[in-house]
User: Fold these one by one.
Assistant:
Number 1:
Amino acid sequence: FSADDVTVLFVLGGPGAGKGTQCERLVASYGFTHLSAGDLLRAEQNRAGSEYGELIKDYIKNGLIVPMEVTIALLENAMRDAMNAAAENKDTTITNDTSATKNTTLKGKFLIDGFPRKFDQAVKFEEAVCPAKFVLFYDCPEEEMERRLLERGKTSGREDDNAESIRKRFRTFIETSMPVIDYYEKQNRVVRIRANVPPDDVFRATQAELVKRLGD
Ligand code: UP5
Ligand code: MG
């Protein structure tokens, strides 16, 4: 993808920081396409005939990072699908060209949630797929993230929302994923948002930053 056709924002933060919650709101208000790497991996895990099902299940339960070839292929396919859908939409709604143009532009804005989680993934994705415009980093203390995940675990059915998996996810985040944030921070590409306040407040802070950076 060329940076002229698509705008990519990485949405990062620890497990339970609220990445998915904020992305949903950004989709509703700004027409981003939301791609959660974790959701794509869980879908692939459950896809009949997937050769990676067992591997993904094992990695996620242990809070480990799935080999990037798998994740990048899933992200790239999902981006391609969204772009194709947008192009089709443009052809079929040609009678109403303003909304068609608008739609097409909107589909080119992606929130990549929960990726990259490792330095080499960041480099590879930006080289092979598309550079990110900047990184939204939801910064939340571990105690709060733990409280949220244990609460969600009562009903989520996620195999990694249990005390043991959560501990492993936190460890991977600190050891492997924080260096990615530091790397982008050094390039002045990180927008840090305090995430241990109610979702509405986090969203307001996010909107303020987007206005500054994207001008809408
Ligand atoms: N909640 C949200 N915001 C709140 C707020 N401001 N105040 C109070 N409560 C708030 O939120 C979590 C919970 O908190 C929800 O109940 C929500 O209502 C509440 P959510 O928005 O879901 O947070 P999020 O940051 O998205 O948490 P998630 O659990 O999805 O984060 P993870 O990063 O752990 O999960 P992800 O799905 O990204 O990855 C899972 C696993 O997949 C990884 O551990 C890894 O094994 C694998 N993976 C890879 O290998 N590679 C990848 O590239 C990506 C994932
Ligand atoms: Mg999530």
Number 2:
Amino acid sequence: MKKLKVNTGRKYEIIIDRGIINHCGEYIKKVSSPTRIAVVTDSNVHALYSQSVITSLKQSGFIVSEFVFKAGETSKNFRTIEAIYSHLADNNITRKDMILALGGGVTGDMAGFAAATYLRGIEFVQVPTSLLAQVDSSVGGKTGYDIPQGKNLVGAFWQPSVVLIDPDTLSTLPERYLNDGMAEVIKYGCIKSAGLFRLLKKGRDELDIENIIHRCVSIKRDVVQKDEKESGERKLLNFGHTIGHALEKIYEYKKLSHGEAVAIGMVMMTKASERDGYSPKGTANKIAELCEMYNLPTHDDSEVRDIAFAAQSDKKSSGHNIDVVILKSIGDATVSTMDLRDFQQYIDVPEEV
Ligand code: NAD
Ligand code: ZN
């Protein structure tokens, strides 16, 4: 078992342990005393893990209800949020009660947003079951949902009471989602830890995944603690994401998964910073080699003009400026702001460089 303390708006713990999903109730009892717990989960995760979680909650004496939505990003909208609110009201969830988010990032983001807004805010617990949710979305307090104009355009910062991470749940996660999460793991290595980057070169079969999750969560914890609302340090977490988001958008969220798009973004950004002498020669290749080990793409044929255009409408760009993350070396990153008009030229690196 590994534990981490987070001290943002509220203090809470992240506990990583194999099989912890069967003991949710006991851990919740240590941090809070709700009467009722509403479990929010998606259809896939429901079939696999709801029974264990609900049994544990009932054994600890909680009154449990469950809300299940159709798995997938297309459910991450206000209609689902509204249905969650109805479920909470119908099941007499009060200010003293709690929501438990059981699932990937889609579940955590929506359940967290419902918790942030229902009755002006109730407690919630994160039980992330995808690698992406375990190393990224369950930590940091960002919650929200998508609207037709863009992903995650509505949201709130709302911290969980505790995060319970069970690495064993990854045994059922489809391969593509596992690789998706690995892109974020590689990102953490790139921006903050040469040691983690080196470890990843061993390949997935040799990794101690509990240790990897712990390292990633510690990095994210440290970053969000320094900068909860993303005014400085937290921008580092966007490494590869400006181009990544642009590519996802170009392909209308169909051809590339988030992690795949981010992998391409990390390599492209580093090629650009290498050309300008900010990153040592060979850095982009090292990242590309690692991404390939985890079946992540490192190149895309989109025109830089289209990427730059899509990046302009990214909500993370502010006014005429765009923040780019530059690796001074693997494990050491910095943020630089540039004029949006220069961005297209910046990322336009001929293939042979
Ligand atoms: P997801 O929640 O849709 O999960 C991916 C798929 O895996 C789903 O089909 C799900 O049913 C399935 N699944 C999850 N756990 C499983 C398990 N243990 N076994 C079998 N199947 C399982 O998506 P995701 O990739 O986890 O997260 C992506 C979402 O996270 C996006 O909406 C993104 O915006 C959000 N996100 C949020 C933050 C944040 O800081 N809040 C950060 C990064 C990403
Ligand atoms: Zn990401």
